[in-house]
Amino acid sequence: MSDLDDLYQELILDHYRTPRNQGALEPADGKAEGYNPLCGDKVSVTIKLDGEIVTDVKFEGAGCAISTASASIMSETVKGKTRQEVEQIFEKFHRLATGAAVELDEGPQLGKLEVFASVGNYPVRVKCATLAWHTLVAALANRDEVVTTE
Ligand code: ZN
Q1: Separation CA 47–CA 56 (nearest Å)
Q2: 3-state helix, strand, coil in the chain (%, to 5)
Q3: How far away, in angstroms, is 37 Cα from ligand 1 center?
């Protein structure tokens, strides 16, 4: 198990040190900001849509390693996906991150998101891991508001 943990930790650190898709899309088809008061993580997400497909996504913000890595991996994961696929992935990822039982073989594949499986053991970290996703959902609805994790 520890080898796997090391691998997961390395992937998280890689995305923390070299975040993918950083910045802001201008103009954007949707944008939102997220704030996690428990940890102080802040993230803003901008997206481009072509019909139902998320064609581009960028994020900016300052936060802990988990929140930054999660935003980076989120941005890689959702590009090219439809709204519906994004919602399905988020639902499954949320279950995984909160420590709920998840059948990984069923439904959408989580890929790199599986690295956050262990945060379910640390309730405070769950909010760090899901912040970018809550913000993405708000951006998809183009609510342009600050979302706080509950
Ligand atoms: Zn955090």
Answers
A1: 6
A2: 50, 20, 30
A3: 9
Q: Scanning the structure block, which residue is given the tokens 């999660």?
A: 70
pLDDT (tens, 9 = 90+) of the chain, 150 residues, equals 456 677 788 999 999 999 999 999 999 999 999 999 999 999 999 999 999 999 999 999 999 999 999 999 999 999 999 999 999 999 999 999 988 888 888 889 999 999 888 787 788 889 999 999 999 999 999 766 678 876
Nearest-5° Cα angle at 47, 16 to 69: 10
- What are the counts of helices (DSSP H) followed by strands (DSSP E) for the chain? 4, 4
CB 34 within 8 A of CB 149: yes
What is the CA(72)–ligand 1 centre distance, in A?
14
Give the distance (Å) from ligand 1 centre to CA of residue 51. Answer: 33
Q: What is the pTM of this model?
A: 0.91
